[in-house]
Specification:
With 122 residues, the protein is mainly α. It has four helices and no strands. The protein has one domain: de novo design (two linked rop proteins) (Up-down Bundle), CATH 1.20.1440. It comes from Cloacimonas acidaminovorans (strain Evry).
Length: 122
């Protein structure tokens, strides 16, 4: 089973990036080439890797992309926490994006669990 770009998960990932760009605009100028660049690159990588997963040629490649997506979600959450701890972004401003992250993580986790179960029975 592959993640298909027609699925809701890809659309949610695609909607995430512009919202993260809006957050990045609120970071101070001195973070323009550090934290701002990190959070936007991570946000772009999430739907990009979902699309790559849809094009995976085999189960191993598919699993690799799913792991990359999970890692990128965790990476963005970490970057969010760093920005909050530094006082650059408050929780209210990041909650919408955090909710979007969870809307991607939930079906991805379900898919990973289903595939693990399937692998264990085969």
């Amino acid at each position: 089973m592959k993640i298909n770009k027609n699925l809701d998960i890809w659309e949610k990932g695609r909607q995430l990036a512009p919202n993260v760009y809006e957050l990045a605009k609120e970071l101070p100028e001195e973070e323009k080439f550090v934290l701002s660049q990190e959070i936007t690159q991570t946000a772009i990588a999430i739907p990009s890797n979902i699309a790559s997963c849809a094009e995976a040629k085999n189960a191993k490649e598919d699993k690799n992309f799913r792991n990359i997506i999970s890692g990128k979600l965790a990476r963005w959450e970490t970057q969010r926490e760093i920005a909050r701890k530094l006082g650059y972004l408050n929780e209210d401003k990041t909650n919408n994006v955090f909710k979007q992250i969870n809307l991607i993580r939930s079906p991805l986790s379900s898919l990973n669990k289903a595939l693990k179960t399937d692998e264990a029975t085969n």
